[in-house]
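Intended use. Records like the one below are meant for learning the mapping from a protein sequence to its folded structure. Do not use them to infer anything beyond what is encoded.
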Amino acid sequence: MSDAGHDAMKSFTFLLFASGILNASEISVRVYNTSKIVPATLDRAMREASRIFGQAGVEIRWEEGDPNAQEAHETDQSAPTAFRDRHVRDYLVLRIGRGLAANTPKTALGISYPYAQLGASATVFEERIEDVCQTPGIDFAVVLGYAIAHELGHVVLVFNGHSSTGIMRARFGPTELRAAQLGILAFTPDQAIRMRRYRPANAPYSRNSVEMLEKRASRKEADFKQ
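Structure written out for the chain above:
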């Protein structure tokens, strides 16, 4: 591609993001702070999770939930994949609490239920975050934010597995901790594309709309190459 074509393509891509087209994917998350984390700390963690999702082109709209609500204490592990497009809620549920890590791997900072129709979509274990933050210089709010992004990532990707790189790695070890503190632990480009295609129930436009726009961008790039 010529310099002029490359510059034109950059301008085209910039306009797409600036206009909110490729960056228009949005999810709503209801947060249940059942362990009563200090509001200022939780706010910083949610802003960190928002930043990480924002890098992938997905905006999070947060809603505070009553930690005494029934929804905050329910878990649904039975809903099959076929129910995903008939999801009864147009929002996801994030639960942050203590004493919820029974029967989970010792290194897990949380657990997710991508197909849940009720109760928590994702749960983060506060005491596991505290254990990780025993290392001097580790910011609790940052690690909490990354754990939130990781677990919500499972739900939005509709994926129970893990990747070999990035924020969806199975283990949050020293390497990941350093990357988190530097703000460089992120979703992979492929994951970002899949996340932008995600649509909860009652979404204002179809699952295929972002894919269609990305194909248009590819065709536009091909035109510039000619």
